[in-house]
Amino acid sequence: MKVNKFLKTGNGEKIIHVFLSIFAGSMIYILFREKNLLMFKWFKFLKLDFIINFLRDNFYKYRIYIPKSVLFSLPDALWVYSFTMFLSIYFKNRIMLSSIFAGSIITEILQLWFVTGTFDIYDVIYMFVLYLIAMYFIKKIEVEEKI
After folding, report:
1. For 20, phi and psi rounded to 5 degrees?
2. pTM of the complete model
3. How many Cα atoms within 13 Å fall on the side-chain side of residue 135?
4. Residue 55 pLDDT exceeds 70
5. If we measure between CA atoms, which residue out of 120, 92, 100, 96 comes closest to residue 108?
6. Gap between the Cα atoms of 55 and 31, Å rounded
7. CB of 137 within 8 A of CB of 17?
């Protein structure tokens, strides 16, 4: 009964957003990123490498048609989107929800000087756009709940 009530509120819709965005970002990594990433060792350890290799054999060739910004920046932005949507289930405060976005942007900018990594303006752009989309859907779902 409690699960049913949870899903009847906008939370069920938010959970769908969370899982679809994580799934999309994961598929970009699995299908199109280089195999030297740590997750491919995990797949091998879990005996999932045959499935991953099958998928990659069928999709990796399409990598040349996908912009580099989608391959390298979109998955991180999808994570920000997903986490923002997830937190909106528990926190209604917009400042709290914005902290994920702000922290991600700050970390990206600090990569210019202090944080290990490579600063990429596309990371910032994608995160900003997906943060705005997340806030739009959060507001939309809240308005629909009041109707």
Report:
1. -65, -40
2. 0.86
3. 15
4. yes
5. 120
6. 7
7. yes
Tokens of 114: 């202090």
Instruction: For residues 15 and 67, give the distance between their C-alpha atoms in angstroms, rounded to a whole number.
Output: 28
Token pair, residue 146, equals 């009041």
Q: How far apart are alpha carbons 125 and 140 in whole angstroms?
A: 23
Structure tokens at 17: 């957003």
In which band, very low, low, confident or very high, does the pLDDT at 136 lie, cut at 50, 70 and 90? Answer: very high
Judge contact between 77 and 129, C-beta under 8 A.
Answer: yes
| 50 pLDDT more than 70 | yes
Average pLDDT over residues 43-66: 95
Task: Give CA–CA dist 125/119, Å, rounded.
Answer: 12
79-124 pLDDT, tens digit each = 999 999 999 999 988 898 999 899 999 999 999 998 888 899 999 9
Let me know how long the chain is: 147
Residues 6+ apart with CB under 8 A from 45: none
